[in-house]
Write a structure and sequence with these properties.
Layout lengths: L1 E6 L4 E6 L4 E6 L5 E6 L6 E3 L13 E9 L5 E2 L10 E6 L3 E3 L25 E3 L7 E3 L8 E9 L5 H4 L7 E5 L2 E2 L12 E10 L4 E5 L8 E2 L1 E7 L9 H13 L22 E3 L7 E5 L6 E2 L12 E3 L4 E5 L12 E3 L4 E4 L3 H4 L5 E3 L4 E2 L40 E3 L21 H21 L1
Parallel strand pairs: 6-8, 20-22, 21-23, 22-24, 23-25, 24-26, 25-27
Antiparallel strand pairs: 1-4, 2-3, 2-5, 6-18, 7-8, 8-28, 9-10, 10-17, 11-16, 12-15, 12-18, 13-14, 13-16, 19-20
Length: 448
């Protein structure tokens, strides 16, 4: 069995598209990781949008723009890009698009850290002379923000790299100050230069020829990212240990994986509630009617717990003494289980605790019949369409060569809602219409 696992903090629908058909999977549990089963040997493409969690405590990069300059197709993505990144074609004011001589299969991208697809390196944008320069538009907002830009350069004419009479070399400038070393694009290869550790808003980023160059600057592709603030290292390890103990004891809980509290409150596991500090702690366990059967394991490492709700399960044996060790516990509901023996004094004498133990087999109680335990129901979540990207802007300034998009591409993974009505009472026709709408939605999601 081959499985695909993807991180996501929101419930939703994943669409798996194949060469011949599309299939959608409704993912209704609120988990950070989902597993999609497929048959071994099948070739499938999974297209979905996810929030970036980065639970290792680093920084997140958020893509603003990704352009293939000089490209003759509006969008380049899978299969040209095996990572299915979306590269939109763009042109520059006062620039010339140049079709490259290198064949796509022969362009070597192994020299680039980010492996751009060869299709975005085949062509380029250039200017008319070495005295002209290209200005990159970052499409950033007016307020300063940390940025990360990757630029890709590949020579488009083989003669220019084999003849000593020609030299194309240039540098990247940030606010009119040299930023990079000399860049000489290779034919059939790629040079990647990253612009990092700067905070930009109206920052000027230009490409300028070196003094000994006799060929003008060119650029094949570039990406613009903003950088997040330092992210949390994740939920406290003591809570993770306690949750792992519960999952090892009760198989029904294993289906939840990833960080239980991050990256947001919307992504928390259904049966936990967390604090909002830099390092989250679990403050509530809500495991009522989860078909938990057997003895309750020791999860006392989760010491910030305020609420523990375990009612309507099949838990049995003595009430564990460790339940009296939680210093902040305000509510403990053990009702409608099969606990026996006596209540620990650490619980019965705790005046700050609301304790519910009805419906058990404790001393002095008449033992009720075993409760009917059923797995928790999965409720399909409400889906929220992703935010649209900011509008494109085409800057212009005297004696500069800004780059802008040729046309505005559709926002990634944009959702469209189609509404129709029918005056017929023919049931078969209504069912056929419903099936057609569902197929249209599934195919649209697969394409975008």
């Amino acid at each position: 069995m081959t499985m695909f696992t993807a991180a996501s903090p929101k419930c939703g629908k994943c669409v798996v598209s194949c060469d011949q058909h599309c299939q959608s999977f409704l993912l209704s549990l609120r988990k950070n990781c989902y597993t999609i089963p497929v048959t071994a040997g099948d070739r499938i493409l999974v297209r979905a949008s996810f929030y970036y969690g980065n639970f290792d405590g680093g920084y997140a990069l958020f893509n603003v723009k990704r352009f293939a300059l000089g490209a003759y197709q509006s969008t380049i993505r899978y299969p040209e890009d095996p990572y299915d990144r979306k590269w939109y074609s763009a042109y520059g004011l006062f620039t010339t698009n140049v079709r490259g001589e290198a064949e796509i299969p022969k362009i070597d991208v192994s020299g680039s850290e980010d492996y751009p697809p060869a299709a975005v390196l085949q062509n380029a944008s250039t200017v008319n002379s070495t005295t002209s320069y290209i200005q990159l538009d970052t499409y950033l907002r007016d307020s300063p923000v940390p940025i990360y830009i990757t630029t890709f350069f590949s020579e488009v004419v083989q003669l220019f790299t084999t003849s000593p009479n020609y030299k194309r070399s240039f540098q990247i400038y940030v606010d009119d100050e040299p930023y990079s070393e000399e860049i000489v694009p290779p034919f059939g290869g790629v040079v990647e230069v990253a612009i990092t550790n700067i905070t930009a808003s109206n920052t000027s980023i230009t490409l300028r020829s070196t003094s000994d160059a006799n060929l003008p600057v060119l650029i094949n592709a570039f990406e613009v990212y903003t950088v997040s603030e330092l992210l949390s290292p994740g939920t406290d390890t003591r809570d993770l240990e306690g949750l792992a103990v519960l999952q090892l004891q009760f198989e029904v809980l294993i289906k939840w994986s990833g960080d239980p509290c991050l990256p947001s409150t919307e992504s928390q596991w259904e049966w936990v509630e967390c604090s909002t500090g830099k390092i989250p702690r679990t403050v509530s366990l809500n495991l009522s009617s989860f078909s938990l059967v057997g003895a309750l394991p020791d999860f006392s490492s989760m010491d910030p717990l305020v609420t523990i709700d375990l009612h309507d399960n099949g838990l049995e044996g003595p009430i564990p003494k460790f339940l009296g060790s939680f210093p902040y516990l305000k509510q403990l509901d053990l009702s409608n289980n099969r606990f026996n023996g006596t209540i620990p004094t650490s619980l019965s004498k705790n005046k700050n605790l609301r304790l519910v133990v009805t419906g058990n087999c404790l001393t002095g109680m008449s033992c009720p019949p075993p409760p009917q335990v059923t797995p928790p129901a999965e409720t399909p979540p409400a889906e929220t369409p992703p935010d649209s990207p900011p509008d494109y802007q085409v800057p212009s300034a005297p004696n500069t060569t800004p780059l802008s998009s040729g046309s505005r591409p559709p926002p990634p993974d944009e959702f469209h809602i189609h509404s129709t009505s029918t005056a017929t009472n023919n049931t078969a026709a209504q069912l056929l219409l419903l099936v057609m709408l569902l197929l249209e939605t599934i195919i649209f999601l697969a394409l975008f």
